[in-house]
């Protein structure tokens, strides 16, 4: 019991991004940082008063400390910007682990089996092979070459768990495996729809592409970038929209493609450069223009994809299990990370 409590307290503290001292300060002298350290090492157990205070400060329910971890997260591919600290990264990993624990727990109540199958097995060494892999995947998953309406939902339909989290702006996304057999993708809920779509597909590249292990990490990232761009704008599609060779491209054309296919203007131009629709010199001039124009860089006022990007499967499973009385209302609230009254307000049964 002490070991379990210790592990859960440490996980909640890391998830909150706090040091031992910072947590002690937030508890306003109720318990010292040395005592918290002993809790985490399993040398002491907190009393009920301290446990309630810990839950409040760490923004978790008290039953969080009693829930044993049954999820092992491995092979994490992290996509982030410079400036995201080690502490931030550790916090995000713990948040993801907690989300996956709750996700897999509700699936276990409903007796779901995991049967993910990767249709891409060939070793990837080049961008040409990435293009071929995308063409194969579009056929295997029956996606066609038109705009993908909801990338996150499409991933869930193909047995990949998707989690949206509200964290630091510098975090884009990550992917990995739960218990070595269940693939998952995490995106930043606060990002634009276009950015979430691209990030999710970049992470899908990490999960599906069997990239040559001898390649440098930067080369692997570029291949996953190519994969994401090709998924959003397959070769056949972008040739139809722009043609095979252009001396210049209007902003109006780029806005139309962005609004239709849910891909940013900058990603469209990168795709055009990759397929030699425009020259490297043209692309460099475009990048210079972007860097000189803050509005163009943020793309505010340069079109918006009106499609939705969300995944509701996790909550649908909770509502289903609650309606069928497989789990109690209290358990449903706990899994949803809601207060009981809040969950009751969202739940309607016929």
Portion in strands: 5-15%
Report on the biggest sheet: 4 strands, mixed
Elements, N to C (H/E): HHHHEHEHHEEEHEHHHHHHHHH
Strand order of the largest sheet: 1-4-5-3
From the alpha carbons, calculate the radius of gyration and give it in angstroms.
23 Å
Percent of residues in helices: 40-55%
Overall 3D shape: elongated
Mean pLDDT level = 94
Distance between the termini: 41 Å
Low-confidence stretches: none
Topology:
Elements: H1 2-15, H2 20-26, H3 33-40, H4 48-58, E1 73-80, H5 86-109, E2 123-124, H6 127-140, H7 151-157, E3 161-165, E4 171-178, E5 182-188, H8 193-208, E6 210-211, H9 217-232, H10 235-242, H11 251-261, H12 265-274, H13 280-292, H14 294-298, H15 313-323, H16 329-336, H17 340-346
Parallel strand pairs: 2-6, 3-5
Antiparallel strand pairs: 1-4, 4-5
Helix pairs in contact: 1-3, 1-5, 2-3, 5-15, 6-9, 8-9, 12-13, 15-16, 16-17
